[in-house]
Amino acid sequence: MIKEDQHRINEKIRAQEVRLVGDNVEIGVYPIKQALSFAQEQELDLVEISPNATPPVCKIIDYKKFVYEQKKRDKVLKAKATKVIIKEIRFGPNTDDHDYDFKKKHGEKFLKEGAKLKAYVFFKGRSIIYKDQGEILLLRLAQDLEEFGKVEQMPKLEGKRMTMFIAPKKK
Fold it and tell me: What is the pLDDT of residue 1?
């Protein structure tokens, strides 16, 4: 499970001299043989932390414990990362008031949950002549939902769709 190529340890360190850092050693530049003997005395591993430095920086630690704690840290960071969810609402250019209200309520719910909203008007066949009606519909939706979110992208026609993005407001 441990990636051996991630860090060089003990005899795999190629440098002639290394800079030792850490709690259990005196910080300084040592020949590789001396640094390895320090690690063996403490029954720990010599781990290359920064291979690109001159001389490379090494630390005397328990390698398996080091990797475990690094994985734990990565897991915590990944858990804190926010995932952006995009919910879609589709309208026709001649969407009726009742249908509009129904879809507006869904949009409101999505924004309250913290999801981004992608509202679009889909033009079928010759309904593309109602571009202005589609834009009015999306702008009306943006105005009705302005207390829950702000418009990220104004209505934009792409092929047969006019799309608009609304991001939730931060609490």
Answer: 44
Alpha helices in 27-156 (DSSP H): 32-41, 63-80, 97-112, 131-144
Q: Which of 124, 110, 123 is nearest to 155 (CA)?
A: 123
Per-residue pLDDT of 66-77, as tens digits, reads 889 889 998 988
Domain-wise residue ranges, the chain: 10-79, 86-168
What is the predicted pLDDT for the residue at 2?
Answer: 47
pLDDT digits (tens, 9 = 90+) for 64-104: 888 898 899 989 888 877 778 899 999 988 889 999 999 99
For the beta carbon of residue 145, count every other beta carbon within 10 angstroms.
21
> Across the chain, what does the average pLDDT equal?
86
Closest CA to 61 of 74, 70, 51: 70
Q: Do domains 10-79 and 86-168 have the same CATH topology?
A: no
Token pair of 4 as six digits: 């051996």
Q: Report the largest interatomic distance among the alpha carbons of the chain, rounded to a whole angstrom.
A: 83
Task: For residues 140-162, give the mean pLDDT.
Answer: 90
Half-sphere exposure for 110 (CA within 13 Å, toward CB): 21
